[in-house]
Specification:
This is Phosphohexomutase. 14% of the residues lie in helices and 36% in strands.
């Protein structure tokens, strides 16, 4: 069996009512003539949307097929024992040309009871933001379930939501249960559990061409929401040149930011997990003893767990990557 190597995947593009053109203009992606491209799925194990390899001798095989064959060599033994052939993370880029609906995701327990699926904990890394652009993360005051339901009923929910003006490089961690919405004029990289379970709370009374509004999930959402209040919802981290800055560490993923202008040598022996690199600035080369790939802004690459040693070499003067593993 030939050695595994860093894997690239075909991107899947999705037209959304709130999408735009920034995945093309900011990230240089080619989504053809989609008028409102809202999402690009870079790496997915979601049923019906499983990513397909685009480079090397494994091109044309999908992620689930590879895990069936390579098991722990691809994802790590502990990851394979926990998730079997289901890849546990979904990596996306999102272009909010208009406000996304206010929503919440259930945790694993509630989602498995209701949908037979995993819940959704996620994080956002802001890549681009128009001046004054804001997103919603949590509540702006302590609130009870009863008050919340009254606000929803009276269409006053926006009054109690916490909005934050954002800049490139900002990070927001969204554990399952936290109410959230990406605001107009923002592009983010999203790292999340493999789940497509979303409860929509409010959609600004928008209607389609037939005058019909999108479905809301008020009763389902109220059981999923974490009503606790926090003074600061933004994730603070300290970037350091040519070193990994810890950004988010939770039960579902561990994300760091590496900003580099010189070659970084990596040795992941003992990690027992795949590693994902999401390029959020610049261009670089990833090389193993047998394989080299160029990775540009907006591209994602998966390093199999059995590829223990490799190098990240900058091509542009400065490079930033999000490094993700379990």
């Amino acid at each position: 069996m030939q050695n595994l190597y860093p894997l690239k995947f075909k991107t899947r593009y999705y037209d959304k009512i709130w999408g735009g053109q920034k995945l093309k203009t900011v990230l240089n992606k080619d989504f053809g003539d989609l008028p409102n491209c809202g999402e690009s799925w870079e790496l997915s194990g979601v049923e019906g949307n499983i990513s397909e390899v685009s480079n090397g001798f494994l091109a044309g095989n999908n992620l689930e097929e590879l895990i069936e064959v390579y098991m722990g060599d691809l994802v790590g033994d502990k990851v394979f024992d926990r998730f079997s052939v289901e890849f546990p993370l979904l990596i996306k880029f999102i272009d909010a040309n208009d406000d996304l609906s206010v929503q919440v995701h259930p945790d694993d327990k509630l989602s498995k009871e209701r949908h037979g699926a995993y819940g959704k904990t996620e994080m956002w890394y802001v890549l681009q933001a128009d001046k004054g652009a804001k997103l919603n993360c949590g509540f702006n005051q302590p609130i009870s379930k009863e008050t919340y339901l009254q606000k929803v009923e009276n269409k006053e929910i926006m009054d109690v939501l916490n909005f934050v003006e954002v800049q490139p490089g900002d990070v927001f961690f969204m554990p399952a249960g936290r109410v959230h919405a990406i605001g107009k004029g923002i592009v983010v990289a999203e790292i999340q559990q493999t789940s497509d379970v979303t409860y929509r709370i409010y959609d600004y009374d928008r209607v389609d061409a037939n005058g019909k509004g999108r479905e809301l999930h008020t009763e389902w959402a109220v059981d999923a929401i974490d009503f606790s209040y926090h003074e600061n919802y933004k994730t603070e981290y300290k970037a350091e040149k040519n070193a990994r800055a810890e950004v988010v560490k939770c039960d579902y993923f561990n994300t760091g930011l590496i900003e580099f202008d010189q070659t970084i040598e990596k040795d992941i022996y003992g990690l027992d997990s795949f590693v994902i690199y999401i390029c959020v600035e610049g261009e670089y080369e990833i090389s193993t003893p047998t394989h080299t790939e160029t990775v540009k802004l907006g591209e994602t690459i998966l390093v199999p767990a059995s590829v223990h040693q490799y190098k990240l070499k900058p091509i542009s003067p400065n490079v930033k990557v999000l490094e993700v593993h379990l």
